[in-house]
Specification:
This protein has 4 helices and 6 strands; from the N terminus they run βαβββαββαα.
């Protein structure tokens, strides 16, 4: 099934559903099934709303975080340098300010526990 159309509440094609679901309506999607030659109209609705306290951020924006970049990933190395990263040859990791790599591909390369990484490399 492919989705061809996603409508916000109040747009043409959502008025009847808006009357039924009211403020709970988030969106209406029109999906097409080529095998069965059918169009399916789906709705996304809010089922529950309750208070939530977001967890504190794992890193401060100016905190240096350890990032592992493979030797062959030259473009990532350039990104690390451009973000103000420093290479630590003993740990074999880049240390980059978190705020500079937040929401980039380098964020996925952050090493969560450096002490375990160092122990594994030493063979402990």
């Amino acid at each position: 099934m492919t989705t061809r159309l996603k409508l916000k509440p109040g747009q043409k094609g959502t008025k009847k559903l808006l009357d039924i679901y009211g403020d709970a309506l988030v969106c209406v999607r029109y999906r097409y099934d080529e095998e069965r030659c059918t169009r399916v109209k789906t709705v996304e609705i809010v089922v529950e709303t309750r208070a939530w306290i977001p967890p504190p951020p794992r890193y401060a924006m100016d905190e240096m975080v350890p990032v592992r970049i493979a030797f062959a990933e030259k473009s990532f190395k350039q990104m690390a340098k451009a973000a103000g990263g420093k290479w630590d040859s003993d740990a074999r990791l880049w240390f980059i300010p978190y705020g500079k790599i937040k929401s980039t591909v380098l964020e996925k390369h952050i090493i969560l526990d450096v002490s375990l990484t160092a122990k594994n490399e030493e063979g402990i």
